[in-house]
C-alpha cells in the first residue's frame, strides 16, 4: 500500500525553561499578558508533522511518500529524509521562502508555549493528490488550512481512504472547514483538548464525528487514547451510547526527555497498523509504542530502533506482534 503523508515540513527550535509557566501567569491580569521566559537551552531540530510521521513509518519498514512544501533552506533536510527511507519526490521547493519554523519552550511540567511561522507551508494548496499514482492511504496532518480541506475533497472524489488529523490547526480552522475534513474520513484523530475545540466549532460530538466518517481516535497523553467506531467492528470493549469505545493505556517510558513529535510518532505507528490491515485497537497500540519511543528523545526524529526491538517492546505490554 502506498502511504501518503501530507502536512507541514518545519524546523523545530526547542527551548527549555527551568521553571513553571503557570507560576508566571497572573489570573487577575490575564487581559494584558506581557511575558518573557529566559530559557537555558536551545536545539534546532528537523521537524514538522509530515516528516515526523513519515520518519516513524520508515523506521517501521515502510517507504512513505511525503507530499508537502518546503523553502530554500530544505536541501540538507531533504537529503537526510531520503537516507532515512522517505520518498521526497513530491515535495515542492519554494525558492523565495524559508521552510516553516516551530518555536517551542517547554517547562519542567512539560507544558509548552509555541509559535509557528508558516513560510513555504502557505503554498501547500498548490500541490494535488491527483498527481500521485495509486495512493493507498493518506493522512492529512496539520498544514495550511485551505490545503487540508482541498486534500480531503480530493480523497473523497478519488475514493482514497484518508485520516484527518487537524491537530493544532483546530484553533485556526473554522467549523465549516473542520466539518469538510471530517466528512468521509476513515479516521479522525486529535488530542482531548483539540477535540473540545472541534466540538465547540462544529457542534459535533463523538457520535456525530463517527457518523460523518468511519472512526474517531482521541489521544489523552499519559492516560492513553480512546477509539470510537460503529458497533459490529469487533474492536470495542465497552459501549458508549450509540457507538463503541475502546480505551488503550499508555505505556511507561524509560525516561521523559521531550514531548515534541510524540503525537506524530503515534500517527506513524497507527498508519503502519492500518496499512497492514490490523484492527484499530492493534494499530493504536503500535502507535502507543512508537509514541513512547519518541518521548524518550529530543525532537521528533532523533530516535531509532530495529523492527525486532520494536516488536519486543510491543510484546512487553500488548502481546506478540509481527510487522
Considering the chains and any ligands shown, give keywords for the structure:
nine-stranded mixed β-sheet, 323 residues, alpha/beta, four-stranded mixed β-sheet, 21% strand, UDP-N-acetylmuramoyl-L-alanine:D-glutamate ligase
Would you write up a description of this structure?
By secondary structure, the chain is α/β, with parallel strands linked by helices. It has one domain (3-23, 36-318): Ribokinase (UDP-N-acetylmuramoyl-L-alanine:D-glutamate ligase, 3-Layer(aba) Sandwich), CATH 3.40.1190.20. It is built from nine helices and 15 strands. The strands form three sheets. It has a nine-stranded mixed β-sheet with strand order 4-1-9-10-11-12-13-15-14, with helices on both faces. Helix 8 crosses helix 9 (307-318). The chain is globular. Mean pLDDT is 93; it is low at 234-240.
Mean pLDDT across residues: 93
- Oligomeric state of this protein: single chain
CATH C-level class is Alpha Beta
CATH superfamily: Ribokinase
Shape: globular
Return the CATH architecture. Answer: 3-Layer(aba) Sandwich
How many β strands by DSSP? Answer: 15
> Number of helical segments?
9
**N-end to C-end Cα span:** 14 Å
Could you list the spans in which at least 5 consecutive residues all have pLDDT below 50? Answer: 234-240
User: Helix and strand string, N-terminal first?
Assistant: EEEHEEHEEEEHEHEHHEEEEHHH
Determine the fraction of residues in helical runs and give it as a percent range.
25-40%
